[in-house]
Amino acid sequence: MDTTHSTTGGTSRRALLRGSAAACGLLLGGRTLVGVGSGATGPVTAMTRNCYVGTDLFRLFESGLDLDPRRVYERYAELSASAVETRLAAIAAEILANGPSVVGLQEVALVRTQEPSDHAGGDPNASRVDYDFLASLEARLGGEYHVAASVVTADEEFPAEGEGRRLDVRLTDRDVLLVRRGVDVRATDARRYRYRLSFRAGDGTLVTVHRGYCLARLQSGGLRFTAVNTHLEAASAVVRYLQAYELRRDLGSTGDPTILLGDFNAPPGDATYGLLTRSYRDAWADADSGTPGPTCCQAADLRNEESLLSRRVDGVFYRAGDAREAARVGSRTSDRVAAGDGTRVWPSDHAGVVATLGL
Questions:
Q1: pLDDT at position 345, please?
Q2: Rounded to two decimals, what is the model's pTM?
Q3: 143 φ, ψ to 5°?
């Protein structure tokens, strides 16, 4: 099921960026900007952030594992121990601190349960909400950001058994575009990709892993641009490439400058990255950030003390304009948050990327 939502509608880092851009034209911090820039009327700051459900629960239906109810319960218990609300508070704080005009969020999970279990392989029906990532983020953003568009990709339910409990765990996965108050939404769209990964679980059930994208045509002041958010397949390089091909084909030439946000599961050198950069520029590479900028991945339980980030798979791509600055969020040891059991966890298994673009 696809769903789309629409809305109209010291010195801060954002103020410094705006002031520097106005004063320096095509220079920022002594660096020559990369990009065409001749018709730029920006800047626009955009952010991508994978929220991470808090466990490997997604991988139960990404990699063909036997859906043993005891394994599902272990994943559910790990999710419950991942300090979901504290992590989402940290991600909301990142958004408010950087003030992007548009934010692409992936793995914006809705986790529902039913106890006792009545799982018989039919349509998902668990309805008790345990965790609603989107509602929690919206509450913490205090009206500063609104949902412009979203797409529901996965909606799967699994039987779980452990600690004397038998329940059904339902996971609904969403990708969401948020826009800051004052940014007008002119039109939206949301679609699932035609190309998708399917496999049979240990009990013979056919499981299909849907992916998709959502987009919004936006206006901020006199500037019109299109923002797109996606989460490409992780478990199959072939499916991932075909999804990126489909995305490029669907977007075509929008007429407006375009910002492409997401967890692409494709580091530089990957075939999918190469396909995307035929049409779009990579803000991290163009902004000359000076580091490889890895964004993936921390340990599944998020409790590793030293960062394990080793690959840059999350990014901000753009068409028409230049990249003025790019930075990661949630990548430093000091970004970890208290889990409530004496340990600290990372806000997500990914780092986010914030980029300022001249469009």
A1: 98
A2: 0.86
A3: 85, 0
